[in-house]
Amino acid sequence: MSSSLTLFSFFAVTFLYTSSHSFNITNILNQHNDFSKFNNLLTQTQLASTINNRQPITVLAVSNDVMSALVPGRPLDVIKKILSLHIVLDYYDEKKLKSLNGKSVILTTLFQSSGQAQGQQGFLNATVLKNGDVLIGSAGSSVQTQVVESVMSQPFNISVLHISSAIMINVRPENGPPFTPPPRSAPPPNDDDYDYDEPPSPPSPHSSAPGAGPLKATAKTSSASGVSGINSHPAFAFALVITSILWFMT
Ligand SMILES: *[C@@H]1O[C@H](CO)[C@@H](O)[C@H](O)[C@H]1NC(C)=O
Ligand SMILES: *[C@@H]1O[C@H](CO)[C@@H](O)[C@H](O)[C@H]1NC(C)=O
Ligand SMILES: *[C@@H]1O[C@H](CO)[C@@H](O)[C@H](O)[C@H]1NC(C)=O
Predict the structure, then answer these.
(1) pLDDT > 80? residue 138
(2) This prediction's pTM
(3) Contacts of 25 (CB under 8 A, 6+ apart)
(4) Ligand nearest to the CA of 154
(5) Separation of 52 CA from ligand 1 center, angstroms?
């Protein structure tokens, strides 16, 4: 009797715990065969778990047929930097982008927060044309890719947008070991201070962006607060399991 109760409370707690994870990017992309290469790389570079622990977030997904521009001949640490440029630290779905009709907005990416970006490399420039087309490129670069469609969205936590090609930038591979492991768990809110050879901060690259100010500010503050509350769940769930097991065993 008490053992079945223990089992019950275990499942109850497990359910509470898993349902507190609001999304899993690996599972989201698994539902779309077109993104399997992109998805595998997110897992290999451990960016998937970073994404799962951050919200609001927007993932710019690249389909298999154009992944060949990104992958062959590049070490994993370089691929990781380029992929982290495809992860925007704010929520942008099609509706929000369309509301920027005729404007440009500067987006802050995970690459920027890694402290490894040089110059404006960590920022994207999204331009919404009058006809509703959305073009995105590395800030300060004229090469742009187009938003094809929305893959999924869960307002206002995660949005996945399909873009027509990878956004490429020139990044150096690491000098030392071939691959520098990322931080184990979710980056803390103030993860702007990695120990890497951070280049001197460039003069604020976005200050000249018309109309980008408020949105930029939103991206910064909300990404900082978006991590809160996640990390306490495992410990809490674990404590509950232990407590209920002890309770029913005595
Ligand atoms: C979005 O995130 C918030 C904060 O973590 C959470 O309370 C809410 O349930 C999430 N929304 C959805 C639809 O999962
Ligand atoms: C997300 O889903 C993948 C594949 O199903 C799984 O391996 C991974 O552990 C999940 N991550 C989280 C945080 O639940
Ligand atoms: C963003 O792109 C638009 C259109 O290409 C351009 O007019 C604008 O100057 C760019 N902004 C920045 C900060 O690069």
Answers:
(1) yes
(2) 0.68
(3) 39, 42, 48, 51, 52, 59, 158, 160
(4) 1
(5) 12
